[in-house]
Write a structure and sequence with these properties.
α12 packs across α15 and α13 packs antiparallel against α14. This protein has 15 helices and 19 strands. A hairpin with a 5-residue loop joins β13 and β14. The chain is an alpha+beta fold and 559 residues long. It is 53% helix and 18% strand.
């Protein structure tokens, strides 16, 4: 217990040094570390944007091999946006049936038996078979529809039930069990899509947690504009490629009569006029492999996206067989672009340009397209904005509480145990440094309850030292020498301290697994603090004590 060879000293020193290095950026300003680049001087200037991105890259490398990341602060410490959102299960069912209509038409059109009509009302689809003798046709149609019926997510629940509601009518309905499964599946997909839209690069410390079967809580620390987040999430993100009809007479007739069989009327994003697009799209957003912001020939922000291999082939065949015709790129019912097909387009690379986008708008649109279509519209039930001033006040209050705690504990330890108590105070400071370094290194988010966890850890770390020191005092009172008293004190206190910390660590793990938000923040700092406090109490304090013992060889410890 009292033997510290060179390799042990090197490992202890390395652990303390690396913890201090990880914690160091929290004491320095962003400007000092070079991670606070200048803003883009001209968002429409490609050269300025490139210079900004280069500066970002250089800033990230400016500290050579040393880390430059600070502790991520939670919503309650740096301010930000809190949103509570809800999904309508009925709308999810309606959208799923709308998507599957293309497959229904394709399935019933194989070796067609009789003409048919398909109409959807809410989450019900009615199929009308036309003819005189439909007995065989109805049975065949039901078999085809049942073979087509998909399961929901990873469950075995079928999407719809097929029933006869008349002599020539079939109806697809979504049962209650399927509604529940759809809501749960939509919630899971929605959380993924929301994260991809709000944090496409995966660098922001946003928190997305489920609530019930159809609600989602979003916390975006550091975000000052809740309207921007709501605008991004309010767009369904439904992207389709449709053949278009720009003939003025056809458009005029459609506007006058209010209908155009086989076509939908949408608004052109550039001119604001009406455009006719074919009702059944050729491709959808599910066919897109990736999307990103780029620039068009006029050096204006645009959105580039690439189709997957299968869709790229379909798009090539589409453009090859429809020369000199228009097709439309439709996003949420608005024609973003209606180009003329001059020649076949291979490779599956497409661009949305001419939309007078800003760089931020192009980035947001690319994130929406790549994240995919929302299963249903998000309804915003609650919105809160936490100001950075309130968060800074919380940080200052937590820092003051921690400092007061360390000072009071330090005074007590020195008065109770003398110089050995001073060693415990030194290891306590090392413990705080290691906790901050671990939070920075792991990228954990520090919340206000997390600060409470650090303060609690201060008491726990001292508690371990108090148990050891009391054992040393008892051994010395029984006549042992300082060296044997220290060795016996650490050996006999080890099991009791280990048991207490293991049970607390288990409790912190359970809090992390079942808790959410601030509860998880408290659990993380508590778990890290338990590990570092055991290390500092049993290794660092003992190392300090042994160095003092070997250097000064006291006859008796002043305790």
């Amino acid at each position: 217990m009292l033997n510290f060879p060179i390799w042990k000293v090197a490992l202890i020193s390395l652990a303390l040094f690396w913890g201090a290095i990880l914690a160091l950026p929290n004491l320095l300003s962003d400007g000092f570390m070079g991670i606070e680049p200048r803003q883009v001087s001209d968002p429409t200037n490609e050269v300025a944007v490139a210079a900004y991105e280069q500066q970002l890259s250089e800033a990230n490398d400016s500290w050579w091999f040393l880390p430059n990341s600070k502790v991520n602060l939670g919503l309650d410490l740096q301010g930000g946006v809190y949103l509570l959102m809800e999904i309508d299960p009925a709308e999810v069912a309606e959208n799923r049936l709308e998507v599957i209509q293309r497959d229904v038409v394709a399935s019933l059109n194989k070796n067609p038996l009789v003409p048919r009509q398909i109409a959807q009302t809410g989450d019900r689809v009615t199929i009308t078979l036309l003819g005189d003798d439909l007995s065989g046709d109805m049975a065949e149609a039901k078999q085809r529809l049942n073979r087509l019926n998909p399961t929901i997510g990873t469950t075995q629940t079928k999407l719809f039930e097929v029933s006869e509601t008349g002599e020539n009518l079939l109806q697809l309905t979504v049962p209650s069990g399927a509604r529940t499964a759809l809501a749960q599946d939509a919630q899971s997909k929605m959380m993924t899509i929301v994260r991809r839209r709000i944090d496409p690069d995966g660098v922001s410390e946003i928190s997305i947690t489920p609530q019930g079967d159809n609600r989602i809580i979003l916390e975006a620390p550091g975000e000052a504009d809740p309207k921007r987040i709501k605008d991004i999430l309010s767009q369904a993100g439904r992207l389709t490629f449709n053949m278009a009809n720009l003939d003025p007479s056809a458009i005029r007739r459609a506007v006058e009569t209010g209908r155009s069989p086989g076509f939908d009327m949408v608004t052109d994003a550039r001119s604001g006029t009406t455009v006719l697009v074919r009702s059944i799209p050729e491709l959808t957003g599910a066919d897109i492999a990736s999307a990103n912001r780029g620039f068009d020939e006029a050096n204006m922000p645009a959105v580039n996206f690439r189709l997957n291999n299968t869709a790229a082939t379909k798009f090539y065949n589409l453009t090859r067989s429809n020369r000199n015709k228009n097709f439309a790129i439709v996003l949420d019912g608005v024609a973003m672009s209606t180009p003329v097909i001059r020649e076949p387009i291979p490779g599956g690379s497409v661009q949305i340009s001419g939309g007078n986008f800003t760089i931020e708008e192009a980035d947001d649109l690319a994130a929406i397209i790549e994240a995919g279509e929302l299963p249903a519209k998000l309804n915003f039930l609650d919105e809160r904005t936490v100001g950075p001033t309130l968060g800074q006040e919380s940080i200052d209050a937590g820092a003051r509480a921690s400092m007061i705690g360390i000072i009071l504990v330090g005074i007590f330890m020195v008065l109770a145990y003398g110089l050995i108590g001073g060693f415990a105070v030194g290891s306590l400071i090392a413990n705080i440094v290691l906790i901050v370094g671990a939070l920075s290194g792991f990228g954990a988010t520090l919340t206000l309850p997390g600060i409470a966890g650090i303060i609690l850890t201060i008491g726990m770390a001292v508690d371990a030292n108090v148990i050891v020191f009391e054992r040393i005092r008892e051994e010395q009172a029984s006549g042992r020498s300082p060296a044997t008293a220290i060795q016996a004190g650490y050996e006999r206190a080890f099991s009791a301290i280990l048991d207490a910390n293991v049970t607390t660590f288990i409790a912190a793990s359970i809090l992390y697994l079942v808790g959410s938000g601030p509860v998880k923040g408290f659990a993380v700092t508590l778990a890290i603090g338990i590990i570092t406090s055991v290390f500092t109490a049993f290794v660092v304090t003992r190392w300090f004590t042994v160095m003092y013992l070997k250097s000064f060889r006291p006859k008796r410890l002043a305790m």
